[in-house]
Amino acid sequence: MPRPSPAETRERLLRAAAAEISLHGYAGATLSSIAARLGMTKGSLAYHFPSKRDVAAALFAYVERTHTELTAGVEDDGLRGIRALVALIARTTLRGRTDPVLAAGIALIVTPGVLPLEVPTVFDDLIASYAAHLDEARTDHEIAPTIDVAQTAEDIVASMVGSWIVRARTPERPDTPPMRLALAVLRSIGAHGRGRRLPRPDRARSGPVSRQPRAAFAAIVSVSARLTLRAATSAWHS
């Protein structure tokens, strides 16, 4: 049987690390337990990941690579505006549920105070991507011209982060899907697809959405989402 390449071994180790962190948390996972999952010695693991910090850094890099990959996929599909935004959010949340390495990376990112590392730029990258698609939507008259696309993009990311935080801290409770929260933000600004309905990533039907922003709901969603994201990021830098 051919020996796995260094890249293949590193990927297997990263998946083993993700499993250990998901099961025991970052503090409870050890290099020895990660190596034991693959029948390796701690010394062999150290060749690829000398410390747990290196494991965390690799998970962070995986999250950022995944975002780049998903963003490119939406562009390759020729989507723009609200359809592109909903597709990107849906693919991100689905990948987070089905990819254990991505899930472990997200869990570390949204758990403040766990690691003495700089928070990855993935939040800023997500906000920039979502804002770009919202700007397309504004050009295509899918949202009102007065909508602040940068703030709305931040609200969407914040709502998703809030969902991830709740899931990470209370895994025994049923969670609110990030996609549902993101759609709530879009409805709060009166967003609609070209067919006058918000495109849905699943089979659930959605009623028509008014193009006029619902000010009270929009304000509640925006403020609560911003507070969530601010708390998540500020705790990292405190």
Distance between the termini: 50 Å
What is the total number of structural domains? 2
Give the overall silhouette. Answer: elongated
How many beta-strand runs?
Answer: 0
Model description:
This protein has 238 residues and is mainly α. It folds into two domains: 50 residues, Homeodomain-like (Arc Repressor Mutant, subunit A, Orthogonal Bundle); 181 residues, Orthogonal Bundle (Tetracycline Repressor, domain 2). It is built from ten helices and no strands. It is elongated.
Summarize the helices and strands and which ones pair or pack.
Blueprint: H1 6-28, H2 31-37, H3 42-48, H4 52-76, H5 81-98, H6 100-109, H7 122-139, H8 149-169, H9 178-188, H10 215-237
Helix pairs in contact: 1-2, 1-4, 1-6, 2-3, 4-5, 4-6, 4-7, 5-6, 5-7, 5-9, 7-8, 8-9, 8-10, 9-10
